[in-house]
Description:
By secondary structure, this protein is of the alpha/beta class. Helices cover 27% and strands 19% of the residues. The chain folds into two domains: 2-106, Tetrapyrrole methylase, N-terminal domain (Cobalt-precorrin-4 Transmethylase, domain 1); 111-234, Tetrapyrrole methylase, C-terminal domain (Methyltransferase, Cobalt-precorrin-4 Transmethylase, Domain 2, 2-Layer Sandwich).
Amino acid sequence: MVTFIGAGPGAADLITLRGAAALRKADIVIYAGSLVNPELLELCPKECRIHNSATMTLDEVMEVILQGCREDKNVVRLHTGDPSLYGAIGEQMAILQKHGIEYDVIPGVSAFQAAAAALKTEYTLPEIAQTVIITRAEGRTPVPEKERLQELAAHQSTMVLFLSATLAEKVRQDLLDGGYASDTPAAVVYRASWPDEKVVRCTLDRIPEVFRENGTAPALIIVGKVLSDENVQAVKSRLYAPDFSTGYREAKS
Length: 253
């Protein structure tokens, strides 16, 4: 069996209980060494064979996995955050399917969730934003034409950008061209949940300046009106309003 595990955003104690249990049973672990907290490897058995995929190609990763399967070993592929977001697991799954090898996926806490916790914010506020767009700026890897930032900006929803720290100038210009105002609240969250986590609040027009002053270590860019304290204080959920009935509570006059 091959198991893909989301390691969480950084803090070792943010891996799920299921993910930790799978690591404790692993015979072979291939982990994303550039982002996964190495403390998690302490959960592995002493005899576990550990490989850092940061220096490996896809073919090299898959050869380790396939060899482990031939040896009837428990193989773990340990990805950062949640593997469904920018985890490049689809291509690995396709190869396993081609070889008739079963696999399982254990979800993890994503960095965009850890960033919201660091910001102490809610991405969805009534009447302000009910949609979260998770995307990235177009760089060396292209994005579909309809998913370019200028197109997505038309929705004026909460936007979370991965893999875009080195493209800050482009991010700003594309979002401005797409319709966001220059003073739209924004934030850059560096290494969410790690001990050296850093949060910088700003406005959209200052995002490139933030990166010039603080560097481009792994970071998320968050843009949207939900980051405004004024908006947070101005709206309330209807769910808990006294005149709002639910399946568990009658409205009060």
